[in-house]
Design goal:
Arc Repressor Mutant, subunit A; Tetracycline Repressor, domain 2; 63% helix
């Protein structure tokens, strides 16, 4: 080992055992959510399934809120990974925009994990409050960054700032300018408004499907969703305007 290389510090045996225990507790809690729904989550039942006491579980998660935060964070991370993987492994069809691919990755994860989707976006768990700017916020921003990238790919900040949002009041746009970024990257208020609108459509159609409100469409739900996402993408791109030609230098 050269003198410049920093030694690798391995976690201690105690830290490794704690990490394994935390993972087992989270996995057991996820299993309970899948079996009985988010609102049936019980620390006592989770502890019992692992052959431990509730008091022992409290050594790893001091309260129910701490465990719920870990579950929500992991669900957001898994959802963000699914959305990112969808865009990374897209077949490269030139007629299928990246936003549509990302949206379909979001839909697929939600359909495959309806109970965990409900934990994120269903009726709030009673008395639970996610920590402000905590791990759940960061995990959600990671997913938002994928949608922002695919929606506004190729546009300059000046273009985004000049997007057609004439139906919105100056007061609302000013309010958006004071809010924290949805994805961690600053967006001009008009672009932030468009991204929020897109998010509402992407999520709203998936929620209707996951919660059983569009079952009458049967296997055609995917076809309707793709059409809606294409139309949404094309509308936003028209509002921002054509991106500059490839290879051009923005001023």
């Amino acid at each position: 080992m050269s003198r410049e290389e920093a030694p690798v510090v391995r976690p201690s045996l105690r830290e490794r055992r704690r990490a394994v225990a935390v993972q087992e507790i989270v996995s057991a809690a996820e299993f309970q959510i899948v079996e009985h729904g988010p609102h049936a989550l019980s620390l006592r039942a989770v502890a019992r399934s692992l052959g431990m006491t509730v008091q022992a579980l409290y050594h790893y998660f001091p309260s129910r809120d701490d465990l719920v935060t870990a579950l929500v964070t992991k669900a957001y991370d898994d959802l963000a990974n699914a959305v990112q993987a969808a865009t990374d492994t897209a077949p490269g069809a030139p007629d299928l925009p990246g936003l549509v691919v990302a949206a379909e990755g979001y839909r697929s994860w939600a359909i495959d994990n309806p109970e965990r989707f409900q934990l994120l976006y269903g009726a709030p768990l009673r008395h639970y409050h996610a920590p402000v700017d905590g791990p759940t916020t960061e995990a959600n921003r990671r997913m938002s960054a994928v949608f922002q990238r695919e929606l506004f790919r190729g546009f300059t900040p000046d273009r985004l700032a000049a997007a057609d949002t004439r139906s919105l009041s100056p007061g609302f746009l000013a309010h958006l300018g004071r809010l924290p970024s949805l994805s961690g990257d600053d967006l001009p208020p008009p672009a932030a408004a468009l991204l929020l609108s897109v998010w509402g459509y992407v999520h709203g159609m998936v929620a209707l499907e996951v919660f059983g409100h569009t079952g009458f469409l049967g296997v055609h739900q995917a076809e309707l969703y793709r059409m809606a996402m294409r139309n949404l993408y094309e509308d936003v791109r028209r509002r921002v305007g054509p991106p500059p030609p490839s290879g051009s230098v923005s001023g």
